[in-house]
Amino acid sequence: MTTAINNLDTYFDAFTEFEKRAAGQNLPWLRRLRAQAFGRFCETGFPTTHDEDWRFTNVSAIARTPFQLAPQVAPQLAKSDLPLLSGAAARLVFVNGHLARDLSTLSERIHISSLREEFAHSPDAVRGHLGQYLDVRRDPFCALNTAFAEDGAYVHVRRGLAVEEPVHLVFISVAGEQPTMSHPRNLLVFEDESEATVVEEYISIGTGAVLCNSATELIAGENTTIAHYMIEREHGDAYNVSTLRIQQGRSANVASHSLLLGGGLVRNNVHPVLAGEGGECLINGLFVGNGREHLDNFMHVEHASPHCSSRQFYNGILDGHAHGVFHGRIVVHKDAQKTDAKQTNRNLLLSDDAQIDTKPQLEIYADDVKCTHGATIGQIEENALFYLQSRGIDEASARRLLLLAFASECVERMKAGSARTHVEHLIHEYLLSLEHLPGQKSERGDMVRSLEEVG
After folding, report:
1. 381 vs 432: CA distance, rounded Å
2. Which residues are paired to 309 by β-bridges?
3. Would you call 122 helix, strand, or coil by DSSP?
4. Partners of 156 in the beta sheet?
5. What is the pTM for the complete model shown?
6. What is the pLDDT of residues 67-84, one digit of tens each?
């Protein structure tokens, strides 16, 4: 059950104005897609904690904030404001949901452009995929994104092409005097036997309430090998809701890597459907929270065909009053015999006030499967900490080393290259910024100092 949405007039007025000037309004199928999605959003409203998929995350702060669509004229930024990912095959930069062409770099090897440009010049190229996979009836934020879908990244990799360097998609939210929202919509199409890496990175500049509600539809053809990275690092007044919907063909191998580093309220949805026989899917993630940040990870893996395998590995590190969520669901459909699925969530709490809610879940409707799930919650291992301190390493450095080792479990599942190097740099930089690593003095710490005095 959901309640009627707050500020309905605000969203209705915004949608009415949006319809008048939105890109692609000359396309009847696109107008219908948007109108149906907005109707669904008005019907259901924002989710509440009474909804099973949202039971650990209260979005009332988003519902009661009078967000306005960001203006089409984006603030001017310099290239020095962009995240550094060296060796990218191409880069698209969006500021408050709109393409910043002067900050972007295109490629001749692959078709990469903005969704707005595709609506204007090649609408038939996107019509067969846009909105065909995202579930607007299940998730109100997906409905809201579809209603305001106007710009975002369009990437099309042709059959048999292997792109070694990553495609970098950068989404920057710039806070203003009034709360603003953007709804980037991305469409990533990989034809049969292609290979590529895409990095979506979300950052925010300034202080003030901003909402970035993004949705990505990723279509992986037969025998493809695709790696997708979602990196989110925003300030404490930012709200970020992202949805990755993956449609996998026969023998497709897709890896989803998520890195959440900050943000007032963050919701990371990953929904792969293994629709073709023999598919493989890796869902790998790390979330690190501090202060009063709320980081929610919702995984919904559907095994729809036989002889498919999926692996979920998510690690969480929470400090201060941060609240983390891992809600992972594996659904094995009746025809998905010989499914092999595993789900693991491990968490470290660095303070007494940090909180984690973890709920691994299996729904199995086939009788010949192998599925496991599990979760652990703990603190930094005192024996390991004592060992490092006994070797002359101070307590704060020893804690950082152990946290880096814990985080590296996720990094090691990433293929070597510039995307992985970028992730490693961000993790190291963030962990060095945590304030409460030294913690309270332990008895073992006193023992180390005594041993040093004796020595």
Report:
1. 19
2. 280, 340
3. coil
4. 111, 189
5. 0.92
6. 999 887 667 787 777 887
